[in-house]
Design goal:
Helices cover about 50% and strands about 20% of the residues. It contains 13 helices and eleven strands. The protein has helices at about 20-35, 50-60, 65-85, 135-145, 200, 250-255, 265-300, 305-325, 330-335, 340-370, 375-390, 395-400, 405-420; strands at about 1-5, 10-20, 90-100, 100-110, 115, 150-155, 165-170, 175-190, 210-215, 230-245, 300. The mean pLDDT is about 90.
Length: about 425
Amino acid sequence: MAEKKEKKAKNIHEVLITIEGDEWKSFLDKAFNKAVKEVKIDGFRKGKVPKSVFEKKYGKQAVIPDATELAVDEAYKRALDEYKGDVIMQPQVAIEKVDNDSITYKFIFTSKPEVKIKKYTDLGVKKDEVKVTKKDVEEEIEKIKKEYADLAVKDGAIENGDTAIIDYEGFDGDKAFEGGKAENYALEIGSNTFIPGFEEALIGLKAGDKKDVNISFPKDYHAEELKGKPVTFKVLVHEVKNKVYPVLDEDFFLDLGLEDVKNVDDFKKTIEDTLKEQREYEAENKYVDDLFEALLKQTTVDVPHELVHEELHRMIHEYEERLKMQGITLEQFYKFTNSNREQLEANMHGEAEKRVTLRFAIEEIIAKEKIEASDEEANKKAEENAKKHGMKKDEYIKAFGGLDMIKYDIKVEKVLDLLKK
C-alpha cells in the first residue's frame, strides 16, 4: 500500500509505504530466524528454540526492530516508484507506525529546486594577460642559485646573509629560562627566525667571539611568561659561513635535469618558458574561478539545507585527509586552533552553499543547452589522462568514479566553453 503526500515546500515530497499481512509476516519470520540463532534458553539447543517459547520469553515485538531493517529496502523501491522524481540526495526515512500486523514507512524526498539563471554568456569576465619580463627571469634564476648555494667557512666578520654557527643561552635576570638554549645552531642572519634584534646584534662578530645580547621579547610572544620581557642571551660564535653560488654552466644544468640546456641563453629561455607555463596555468584557474563567481551572481536557487550539510561533511572529510598528510589529526587541529567541529562547519558553510549552488547552475545549463558526452569522448579522455598519470585506462576510470563521472566532467568543460564565450 502506498500513499503520496506533498509538503508545502515545492521540492519536498513525502511518500508513505505500508507493508502488511503475509508480506510483513514473512519479514517478521526472517527476523525471528536471525534472532533465534543468537539466543540461548535452557532445555533447547542454540538456534532450535520454538517460536512460541521465544515469544513467551522475549515477547512478540522483540523481532520487530530487525524486521523493520529487513523490510526497508523493499519499501524504498516502492517509494521510488511512487515518487517518480529525480533523487538528488538520499531521502530521509522514518517509521510512521509499526505493530505485529503492519509497518508504515515515511520517506521524505528532496527534488531538484527551481533554478533561475539571468544569463550565462557575456558575463564580462576576461582572462588575465600573461607576461614574463627579463626581470622576472633574472629573479627566478637568483632564486634557483640561492636554493642550490653551498655554505663555505669564511675568515671574517658576520655580515647580513651569512650563516653563523653559535651556542646561545637566554637568561631572565640570573635565571636561565626554558627553551632558550642551543648548541652549534646554524642561524642565517637576516632570516628573521629569531626575536627582533638578535640577528642584527651578531653582525660584526667573528669565530671565537662572545657577546651578551640584551633584547626584549615581543609583547605578542606566544609564551605568556616571556611576553615583553627584557632578557640576555649569552652567545658564542663557532664559525661564520657565507653562501657560494653555483656557476651557470653545463654541469649545473645537468644537475637540474636540463640535458638540452647548453649555455646561459638556453637556460634563460627554459626559465622563461617554465614561468609562462606556470602563469598560464594560474591565469586559467583564476579565469575559471572568476567565471563561476560571475555565474553564481546570475543564479537564484533555494538550496536544500540537507545538500549543504552533505557538502559540508564532504569538505571536512577532504580537509581531514589533507591534515593527515601533514601528520595532524582533526582533533589536534581543534586543539591547536582552540576550535571545534561547529566552528569549522560555520567557517565552511558559505563555501559549501556556493558549491551546491554552482552545481545546480551547471546542471541547469547542461539541460538547457542539451549538452551531451558520448562513451567515445569519455573513453578518449580516460585514455589520455591515464597516460598522464601512468595508469591503465580501466584503473583510471575506476579511480575517477566510473565512466559516467568522466562524462559529467566533459559536460562541465563544455559548460565552461559556453561561459568563456
